[in-house]
Amino acid sequence: MSNNKPMPVPTEISAPFWEGLKAERVLIQQCNPCGQWVFYPRRHCPVCLAHDLSWREVSGEATLYSFTVTRIPTLPDFADEMPQMLAVVELDQGVRMNTNLVGLEASEVSIGMRLRPVFAEVDAQGNRLLRFTGVDKDAAGLRQRPGVEQPAPVEPARAAVRQIALSDDAALQGLVSETFSPWSNQVIVDQALIDAFAQLSGDDYWIHTDPERARKQSPFGGTIAHGALVQILQSRMQLNLGYEITGFSNMVNYGSDRLRFPSPVPAGATIHARARVKKVEKVKSGTQLTLELNTHVLGNERPSVINELVILYM
Ligand SMILES: [Zn+2]
Questions:
Q1: Checking CA distances to 215, which of 75, 125, 131, 163 falls within 20 to 30 Å?
Q2: Neighbouring residues of the ion ligand 1, judged by CB less than 5 Å
Q3: How far apart are CA 52 and CA 44, in angstroms?
Q4: 93 C-alpha to center of ligand 1: Å?
Q5: Residue limits of the MaoC-like domain (predicted)?
Q6: Domain segments of the chain as ranges
């Protein structure tokens, strides 16, 4: 694929939209006084002219408003995308966007059809463009850049997974180790994600949400992620622990024995995680496995989150 395709240049007003896409979220503005949804990004509401707009996350579900199939590239750099389905879609909030449809044959496309968002990766820096596909299509499978070698870490890793029966006490005790697993995949903690968490949790303290003030006043020289946000991002970390426990009827997250936030995660940082089995013990209701899961900023010796997760197998 050519790397010379024109790319959107985020402005002060539109940056939250592009940051949202990087985090695979659709953020659009809504007018606080009158409730009007607004897209493209603006300083004021086009209906009541108020300068009081908030960015809100929406599902990205949409209806096809209009489309055309183009077979002649608008620029030579787009030759690899021909034929291209240029479209105008209407989000469920009523705003319309110019975009293109992916993963659909022309015969499958009709005006009024329901669409879902595709967070299409367009460069190695994690920039994404918002495209759309049919609601019955695999939107996740359409995200990757065509022509880019996809890493296939899952298959070889799976081959190395040891299956351990819940009834095999000796093998379970053998999992306990001082050595951590290899690092997980990496996740970017950007300001859009931090802002969304601030909105969700109600913790909108300036040290998380006000980059300008944080630059001047924070000991960290900028905004930092909430510890709780970094903690829950462990759900996005694919860990290769090298084992799989079998023969249980139920597995529950029993909470955490210990949770610490030893060092901050600055906005924009990339994090990854690793884990080790700290303890396995029989309890009345089953077998409890304590997994020490540590999340680090890439390159940092000191973890940002230490979480000793207790998993109960029954
Ligand atoms: Zn308004």
A1: 125
A2: 31, 34, 36, 45, 47-48, 50
A3: 7
A4: 14
A5: 186-286
A6: 15-142, 154-313
